[in-house]
Fold this sequence. Notes:
mainly alpha, disordered N terminus, 13 helices
Amino acid sequence: xxxxxxxxxxxxxxxxxxxxxxxxxxxxxxxxxxxxxxxxxxxxxxxxxxxxxxxxxxxxxxxxxxxxxxxxxxxxxxxxxxxxxxxxxxxxxxxxxxxxxxxxxxxxxxxxxxxxxxxxxxxxxxxxxxxxxxxxxxxxxxxxxxxxxxxxxxxxxxxxxxxxxxxxxxxxxxxxxxxxxxxxxxxxxxxxxxxxxxxxxxxxxxxxxxxxxxxxxxxxxxxxxxxxxxxxxxxxxxxxxxxxxxxxxxxxxxxxxxxxxxxxxxxxxxxxxxxx
Length: 276
């Protein structure tokens, strides 16, 4: 066998192997949109909690500066890190994390401690959902001219990403782990004895969240059998839920967008300039 034949054989093997190994793909523009959206969405989410507390008679969050759009006041560093890692993950950029919890004084809430805390917890969730739906509504009414080329389509794409990030926050915060709103909701619904026991899980909450969204997907890749369970792909299902909910409002994109490969809300979210 000649050197030329050996070289050709090696080249063929490398070519076949290259087709079997998926290329790591990161949409940097989409990741940047997600992070910017998150830095806006989290302050809005926390302001929703603070506004409900004020409406119920407790001005503690306002006195602590929680009626602010300043990300430094509202964003938790670990929650932001989670969002950044999810935004820059290969194949599918997703955006959610958590902010610094708003802590009202339960004894100042005029509807009672438990009911008041429950209403404050739900306020942030529903506020994020409302903002997400409004952003999707903006996409619905944007003029077709904004879909004319691969660069100005970034405008409707940003509104769709912003809608998805807010709806992701809604779905993500239903998980009953501290510091998410679902923790506070479940805590107020539990009987006193069980609530005290449940409160002991708070210190481990962030670690459990990071394990669920990063360690489990990693283990799922090592074992295809495990990877088929929804818990091992929870971030994907949260994202899928967000784009499906926004799609109900967006309805359909203009026909002109099909030339760019944009046919619905999910493809608008994932759009990237061809070749980049």
